[in-house]
Design a protein that fits this description.
The structure holds two protein chains of two kinds. By secondary structure, chain A is an alpha/beta fold. Chain A is built from ten helices and ten strands. Chain A has two domains: 157 residues, 3-Layer(aba) Sandwich (Rossmann fold), CATH 3.40.50.300; 65 residues, no CATH class. In chain A, the strands form two sheets. Chain A has a six-stranded mixed beta sheet with strand order 6-7-8-3-9-10, with helices on both faces. A four-stranded antiparallel beta sheet of chain A has the order 2-1-4-5, covered by helices on one side. In chain A, helix 3 runs parallel beside helix 6. The two termini of chain A are 30 Å apart. Chain B has one domain: ABC transporter involved in vitamin B12 uptake, BtuC, CATH 1.10.3470. In chain B, 70% of the residues lie in helices and 4% in strands. In chain B, the strands form two sheets. A two-stranded antiparallel ribbon of chain B has the order 1-4. In chain B, strand 2 and strand 3 form a beta hairpin. In chain B, helix 5 runs antiparallel to helix 8 and helix 10 packs across helix 11. Chain B starts with 17 loop residues before the first helix and ends in a 14-residue tail after the last helix. Classes of the chains: A alpha/beta, B mainly alpha. Chains A and B meet through helix 2, helix 3 and helix 6 of A and helix 6 and helix 7 of B. The complex binds adenosine-5'-diphosphate and magnesium ion (MG). The site of adenosine-5'-diphosphate has 11 residues of chain A, from strand 2 and helix 1.
Chain lengths: 236, 322
């Protein structure tokens, strides 16, 4: 479904991605783990065209999207819940969800909204509250909900568990599985919470210094000594 | 800009009629303020979405006044003299043509610099302002251009006293047209998909793109909206003062910019409020103090506001990025 090959990307002179190859198949949950600054967020953003790939190719459902403008990439069915959540702070919860549906057929809106409220009932309670006044966990739910409102086929999630209490983390991960299994959404999940992510994912990639350094099934990576040392027992 | 002698106002030489005099200045100030407010919205919208001060916006207003003048003269030559029709045609013409200028300005001068340092965009904006002034000067000449009164007459109040308060039909026209435009504009911003896209871009341009909004188009439409509101201000200015030249955009632009900052740059209601305040300050200052320093008064108040309330009256504090 998503094929990234030989991807390089820069911020000015800093080379944040140095030849990345990643494949995500339809129906999978694939996770990408790695230390802070490895280039994970850059990869997700690069898939959406910002920063633009300096070299390499990105294919989505067989079509090349490497040079498409961001809004066109997104309209093909890729939604992102980006690093930092980036809720529209002066819009209500409802308006944020409406914004997520900006490019879809308005006929689906009520159904989609109901589905998001079923996943996250707290959003319904807060639907007239301004996005900027939500708690961190609620903002994360809203960011995922907003992404779902565009009816994506591929959902890119950047550290949805960051800064959340353990109970909330569990809940977020349970919903990701539900989205994947029941709504048939393919998920590419960036996480520092490697333990949970690898348990949830079908496959995983490990990134360091802008390159993929290891890949395999969730269980294989979980069992790997080096990974345990670097990402699991290190305190993440 | 001619001092406080507008076609609507009564002459200023009447001590002893405190109430009447005050009312007259209130009317004059509000009318003037609405013109500034309409221009200020363009500054505030553009700043809100791409974080730049479009210094050429005053010139867009000036071009709006010229397009209005030319259209009036054309209509006169064609023998279309029924005033409501003529004004409507001029209104539509100036909004259309001036929008094209606003759109082109962004497309040609600002978009290529979107990712450059702020200073580059700022210098370009000043350059475009000078360019547009010279462009109009070359095309239209440097001399002041007059327009005979289109709407004359008015309501007169307090006839029993010696100082008659006048609310001219022109002022009524300006006030009603501004209110109508504000209602339409508020509806567009709050209820339409362009409005939602506009607000999303204001709050987070990158995120707006990530939900599929065509950011370039939204920015273009923002310039078009700002320019068309400024063009209406140009039309009002032309009708109110009866004379224009290629230089009117400078002072009006600075005052409208002051209004935008006073109201809180980025805030749409703030722009209107700021405009009204600047108009009132100007009218009252020239009425009660001296005409000479009326421009300084507005700026002095701006400085005070910025010292005590840097975000302006209705400005939002910077969004804390989580
Ligand atoms: N906006 C930016 N401008 C410049 N450098 C950046 C920017 N964002 C990230 N970087 C740099 O790119 C590298 C990769 O960052 P990032 O993709 O955010 O890593 P991760 O998400 O894995 O923590 C880091 O060295 C970081 O400092
Ligand atoms: Mg990151």
């Amino acid at each position: 479904m998503l094929e990234v090959s030989g991807l390089h990307a820069f911020y000015g002179h800093i080379e944040a991605l140095r030849g990345v190859d990643v494949t995500v198949n339809e129906g999978e949950i694939v996770t990408l783990i790695g230390a802070n600054g490895a280039g994970k967020s850059t990869l997700l953003m690069s898939i959406c065209g910002n920063p633009r790939a300096a070299a390499g190719r990105i294919l989505f459902e067989g079509g090349e999207i490497t040079q498409l403008p961001t809004h066109q990439i997104v309209r093909l069915g890729i939604a992102q819940s980006p690093e930092g959540r980036r809720i529209f702070p002066f819009m209500s919860v409802l308006e944020n969800l409406q914004m997520g549906a900006a490019v879809t057929d308005p006929g689906h809106f009520d159904d989609d909204l109901r589905r998001v409220f079923e996943l996250y009932p707290v959003l319904e309670k807060r639907r007239h509250q301004r996005g900027g006044t939500l708690s961190g966990g609620e903002q994360q739910m809203l960011a995922i909900g907003r992404a779902l409102m565009s009816r994506p086929r591929l959902l890119l999630l950047d550290e949805p568990s960051l800064g959340l209490a353990p109970l909330l983390v569990k809940q977020i991960f349970a919903v990701i599985r539900e989205i994947n299994e029941q709504q048939n959404v393919t998920v590419f999940l960036v996480e520092q919470n490697a333990f949970h992510a690898l348990q949830l994912a079908h496959r995983g990639y490990v990134m360091a210094n802008g390159k993929i350094v290891m890949s395999g099934s969730g269980e294989t990576l979980l069992a790997d000594k080096e990974i345990r040392a670097a990402y699991l027992e290190g305190g993440h | 800009m001619p001092a406080n002698v507008t076609r609507g106002g009564s002459p200023v030489n009447c001590k002893g009629f405190v109430m009447e005099y005050f009312l007259q200045q209130l009317i004059n100030g509000l009318t003037l303020g609405m013109i500034y407010g309409l221009i200020a919205i363009g500054y505030t919208m553009v700043y809100g979405i791409i974080g730049m001060i479009n210094f050429a916006h005053g010139e867009i207003f000036m071009i709006g006044a010229f397009v209005s003048l030319i259209t009036f003269l054309l209509l006169g030559a064609l023998g279309i003299t029924w005033i409501p029709l003529a004004v409507l045609v001029v209104l539509i013409a100036t909004m259309l043509f001036t929008s094209v200028y606003g759109w082109t300005l962004e497309r040609v001068a600002y978009r290529p610099l979107r990712d450059s340092p702020r200073l580059a965009a700022l210098i370009t904006a000043i350059g475009m302002s000078i360019f547009l002034q010279n462009y109009v000067q070359l095309l239209q000449g440097a001399r002041i251009k007059p327009l005979p009164p289109v709407i004359s007459g008015g309501f007169r109040f307090m006839k029993e006293s010696d100082f008659v308060v006048t609310l001219s039909y022109l002022q009524v026209f300006i006030i009603l047209l501004t209110i109508t435009l504000m209602l339409v504009f508020t509806y567009v911003i709050n209820r339409t998909s362009f409005g939602r896209a506009q607000r999303a871009c204001q709050q987070d341009l990158g995120m707006a793109a990530l939900i599929g909004i065509n950011v370039d188009r939204t920015i273009s439409l923002t310039f078009v909206t700002g320019a068309s509101l400024a063009s209406v201000a140009g039309l009002m200015f032309l009708m109110n003062y009866g004379v224009i030249d290629f230089y009117i955009g400078f002072l009006a632009g600075i005052k409208a910019f002051t209004a935008a900052v006073l109201g809180g740059i980025g805030s749409l209601p703030g722009a209107m409020l700021g405009g009204l305040l600047i108009g009132l300050i100007e009218a009252f200052w020239s009425a009660y103090f001296t005409v000479e320093y009326k421009d300084v008064a507005a700026f002095a108040i701006l400085v005070l506001v910025l010292i005590f309330r840097p975000t302006g009256l209705l400005g939002k504090p910077d969004i804390e990025k989580v």
